[in-house]
Amino acid sequence: MSKSREQLIDALLSSQKQVSALLESVADDQDWQPDSEEWSFRFTAAHLATVEKECFLDRVTRIASGDNPQFSYYLNTGRDFSQFDLRQSLQDWGRTRQGLIGDVQALSEDKLVLTGTHVKFGIMTILDVLQLLLDHDLEHLQELEAILTLYRQQSIEKRCEAEVIELHQFFQDWFNGEIEPTNENYARLVDVLSADFILIDPGGNITGGESLLARLRNAHNSRRDFKIWVENFQFRHYEDHIAIATYEEWQIITEGETNARLSTAIFREKAGTPNGVMWLHVHETWLKE
Predict the structure, then answer these.
(1) Which residues pair with 266 in a beta bridge?
(2) pTM for the complete prediction?
(3) SS3 assignment, position 32
(4) In the CATH scheme, what is the code of domain 155-286?
(5) Is residue 140 classed as helix, strand or coil in its secondary structure?
(6) Which of 70, 107, 268, 270 could bond 111 through an S-S bridge, CB–CB 3.0 to 4.6 Å?
């Protein structure tokens, strides 16, 4: 059963909202692409804005004119959208969609039965054009959902690795006294530990986040020659905003005294932190040198 004008308009408003939300969520990384042959998020947004204006709005306008227009197949896949900002494209797309919907809502019933002829789809009414537009939205929605799964996994892997490296550099700078013991500086650690954070050290001792923060706060400038670094980071798993990784933590306590441990860390995504993740749990095991 074909959808009514009202049903198609409601569906188009919903599909555009969903697609726009997905693209807006990656606007800060708009040039990411699954591979060199696939569109970036920037190109996808620009394509949506362009095809809406040049193809679908044009078809609605020309059919409504009553001239029984002829339509060729529309493509803009070869266009260079590299200078189009994703957020601007989404705004342009939204304005065009609102204009198209406003035009369709204003049409009388007799206008809705007017037709044009497409080289592939044959005779079509304005409602047929709206259905094709909805199909186009839903196709991109499905593609984006699949691509974003890959994007988020790659993104969380990079962010977890950056967090591990940066926080261990913070430990070295803190113990060495290279940074001032201010609340603002110490917030680099405080802000990324969850309220129920637990550290299990190589000896099997369990330390909660509050105790760990107090102990480390008092250790500022306590080891001038202390060095710490990370090797062999491995991303293990990601699901429902939770990530698991392993890495080797190497330390030089004093000259000639080196130890190493294998650490398993569990993270949860959290907006507003330096790398978009927070630490939930760390379990350390001595590593044979």
Answers:
(1) 244, 281
(2) 0.72
(3) coil
(4) 3.10.450.50
(5) helix
(6) 107
Q: pLDDT tens digits, the chain, 289 residues: what are they?
A: 688 999 999 999 999 999 999 999 999 899 999 888 899 999 999 999 999 999 999 999 999 999 999 999 998 878 899 999 999 999 999 999 999 999 999 999 999 999 999 999 999 999 999 999 999 999 999 999 999 988 988 889 999 999 999 999 999 999 999 999 999 999 999 999 999 999 999 999 999 999 999 999 999 999 888 899 999 999 999 988 899 999 999 999 877 788 899 999 999 999 899 999 999 999 999 997 6
Residue type, 91: Q
The burial of 164, by beta-carbon neighbours within 10 Å (0-12 exposed, 13-18 middle, 19 or more buried), is given as buried
Q: State the DSSP code for 65.
A: T
For the chain, list the strands marked E by DSSP.
70-71, 115-118, 122-125, 193-200, 206-208, 227-239, 242-254, 257-269, 277-286
Side chain identity at residue 168, one-letter code: H
Neighbours of 77 (CB within 10 A): 8
- Tell me the HSE value of 150 on the side-chain side, using a 13 A CA sphere: 8
CA 10 to CA 123: how far, in whole Å?
24
Buried b (16+ CB within 10 A) or exposed e, 211-223: ebbeebeeebeeb
Q: How many residues does the chain have?
A: 289
- Would you kindly state where each structural domain of the chain is located, as residue ranges? 5-153, 155-286
What one-character DSSP code corresponds to residue 29? G
